[in-house]
TrEMBL record:
Pfam families: tRNA_bind (PF01588). Keywords: RNA-binding, tRNA-binding. One of its GO terms (molecular function) is tRNA binding. It comes from the Bacteria. The lineage of its organism: Bacteria, Bacillati, Actinomycetota, Actinomycetes, Glycomycetales. Gene3D superfamilies: Nucleic acid-binding proteins. PANTHER family: TRNA-AMINOACYLATION COFACTOR ARC1 FAMILY MEMBER, TRNA-BINDING DOMAIN-CONTAINING PROTEIN. This is tRNA-binding protein. Residues 15-119 form the TRNA-binding domain. The keyword tRNA-binding applies. PROSITE patterns: TRBD.
Length: 119
């Protein structure tokens, strides 16, 4: 079987540095029944930036109850996206587990200020 190389669009360092990535704390999580793929609605506190909403397909690994109080990492300056009847304002970052539907959330390994900019 021949190996197919994957082509990828390259981003510049400037593209990356325009992306605002911050820490937030999940305040509320509920099942997003109207989403096409299983997802949760999240309300995340970003400190001075306020509470922002996100739709996250993380139901295979987490329950809504265990998400409350969890510190997450999210992109906070992408345009909002309408998903069914919910406006998702930030993109929570995670890593898909190969061969499963699970996504592992990215998080700092020590206490950090909520709303801190990742650099």
């Amino acid at each position: 079987m021949a190996h197919q190389s994957q082509t990828r669009d390259h981003s510049s360092a400037e593209d990356f540095f325009r992306t605002e990535i911050r820490t937030g704390r999940i305040e509320r999580a509920e099942v997003f029944a109207k989403a096409r793929k299983p997802a949760y609605k999240l309300w995340i506190d970003f400190g001075d930036l306020g509470v922002k909403r996100s739709s996250a397909q993380i139901t295979a690994r987490y329950t809504p109850e265990e998400l409350i109080g969890r510190t997450v990492v999210a992109v906070t300056n992408f345009p909002p996206r309408q998903i069914a009847d919910f406006m998702s304002e930030v993109l929570v970052l995670g890593v898909p587990v190969p061969g499963t539907d699970e996504v592992v959330l990215l998080a700092p390994d020590a206490d950090v200020p909520i709303g801190a900019l990742v650099s």
